[in-house]
Design brief:
- There is one protein chain.
- The protein is an alpha+beta fold.
- The chain has one domain: Heat Shock Protein 90 (2-Layer Sandwich), CATH 3.30.565.10.
- The chain has three helices and five strands.
- A five-stranded antiparallel beta sheet has the order 1-2-3-5-4, covered by helices on one side.
- Helix 1 runs antiparallel to helix 2 and helix 2 packs antiparallel against helix 3.
- The chain is globular, with a radius of gyration of 15 Å.
- Keywords: ATP-binding, Kinase, Nucleotide-binding, Serine/threonine-protein kinase, Transferase.
- GO terms for molecular function: ATP binding; protein serine/threonine kinase activity.
Length: 152
């Protein structure tokens, strides 16, 4: 299988990265499953050959991002959802694919609005957020830095 430059992500094709793709049903119960699977992936086993140890704070932020993105997919897209997690030396990437073609945008901040803050939250904690249309649906990718304040 050849390298896909769009999916090289954190470090490029030669990095010591690990990834996992998880198929989710798209019903409401898959949100908790996605959060659980994210924590299990990031914590990993000692034998996993992880490129780096992930701090508990980053695991929590990744679970938050997964929860928001999968919730949006469950609300707006019929059918299955694909969650892809990728861990490299400097970042963790959370990618959610769903079948809904509409590209989401974060709304203007409004302290009186109830709900619909998911993308605002993701943008606030992620170093990068991209949304790419696919042949069917879209792919939303958030990138969280493992060390948001690297020493200079």
């Amino acid at each position: 299988m050849g390298a896909d430059p769009e999916r090289e992500g954190c470090q490029g094709p030669d990095s010591a990265a690990v990834e996992e793709t998880i198929a989710l049903s798209g019903d409401g119960s898959c949100i908790a499953e996605a959060r659980h699977r994210t924590a299990a992936f990031l914590i990993g086993d000692a034998a996993d050959n992880r490129p780096t140890k992930v701090a508990g704070r980053i695991v929590g932020l990744a679970q938050l991002v997964v929860s928001e993105l999968v919730t949006n997919a469950c609300k707006h897209a019929p059918g299955p959802i694909r969650l892809r997690l990728r861990l490299a030396d400097e970042a963790v990437e959370v990618e959610v694919w769903d079948s809904h073609p509409v590209i989401p945008t974060a709304r203007q901040a409004d302290p009186y609005r109830v709900g619909q803050h998911g993308l605002e939250i993701v943008k606030a904690v992620a170093a990068d957020l991209t949304v790419m249309p696919e042949g069917v649906g879209k792919r939303v990718t958030a990138r969280l830095l493992l060390d948001p304040h690297p020493s200079a």
